[in-house]
Structure prediction request, 410 residues.
Amino acid sequence: MALIVQKYGGTSVANPDRIANVANRVAKGWRDGNRMVVVLSAMAGETDRLINLAKELAEDPDPRELDVLLATGEQVTVSLFSMFLRSQGVPATSLLSHQARIYTDRTYGRARILGIDTGRIREELKKNRIVTLAGFQGVDEVGNITTLGRGGSDTTAVAVAASLKADLCEIYTDVDGIYTTDPRICPKARKLDRIAYDEILEMSSLGAKVLEIRSVGFARRYGVPLVVRSSFTDQPGTLVTVEDAEMEIVPVTGVALSRNDARVTITRVPDRPGVAMHLFRPVADANIVVDMIIQNTSIEGFTDLTFTVPQGDLKKTLELMAPVAREIGAQQVLSDENIAKVSIVGVGMKNNAGVAAKMFEALAAEGINILMISTSEIKISCIIQDKYGELAVRTLHDAFGLENPPPKKK
Ligand code: ADP
Ligand code: ASP
Ligand code: MG
Prediction:
């Protein structure tokens, strides 16, 4: 008998038929003698619908009230799911975040899970019930409802699996595993049997939304056995696991694309100590994550400074930059949202030379201009014009031969 946490994403619970289909799968696991905890997302499109509804009434909705609203999406699916199971004679209890005691900080819209008191979940399991948890939502220490950020149900599932020391955490979605790149962009994408925690961590942070990044962080930290698979087929899926020598044979495991970045350039910045500090301090204080930063060599004591921020934070960043740029005597603050970030990721990059050169050659051969570059031990990212994003993914997928399974280590 195993303790299994399963998470079903929005497309897997998009309508009553799909809810029933998924619930039958869960009931089968329960009948086979497993203890089942199910984490559900809102129905596909529901979270977007709620956000749009909020924007009809408030241009910049209050974050606390927005979280109260968004949390309703998951309340609908968990209740319907448990209701269906009960109608089939299968005992199930739905729990919202305050009932399941999923505690977070108070950063509305992207709250962090601080701890889970699993007492209530364990009580329900002891009564041989299936526990259906509302994903994506949490509660702060005084009972305010919070949400974890888009895709946050993955994080709920992995955090709950870690707290319960579950034998397995399965993320069910609308593709049958983690692919070398988004199969919707590149038809030649190949499903991976296994991927290293570090690789999927990079891919998630670089735009592959198949797993939300914090969920991977939790899985790695607590060694949660994690599998991504389809709720529509019985395919075995992809195991997320620790890296081994076999994974290092190939330099590149996957390609990721992000269209969420915006570029900010400050021109003719006086090149003297303390300038970068003045520019970036207010951005950091506003909790805005700056990704790439490039400072050109200075000419006659002036330099241009370019960096990227999430598109959703661009407006705020520009508001913060304007007075500082004036104060330090810079010339102009420019911005560009028509950019994309294409990245190659692989733990094998550490031991393989010439990966960057090959990436740049492949992009050049398609006439794709690189605007910014950043690298780490296991990834290389290039900022390019947005219109070339998907072409760049397919080009790099071909260039690194990712459609072919890697050779086995002898
Ligand atoms: P869910 O609603 O189940 O959480 P998501 O839409 O959040 O599903 O994530 C699944 C989607 O992630 C897939 O439909 C696919 O388009 C996209 N995706 C992006 N990169 C990858 C990848 N490397 N492998 C698999 N899917 C990917
Ligand atoms: N419903 C939330 C969203 O769409 C959380 C999730 O699906 O994981 O972002
Ligand atoms: Mg998701």
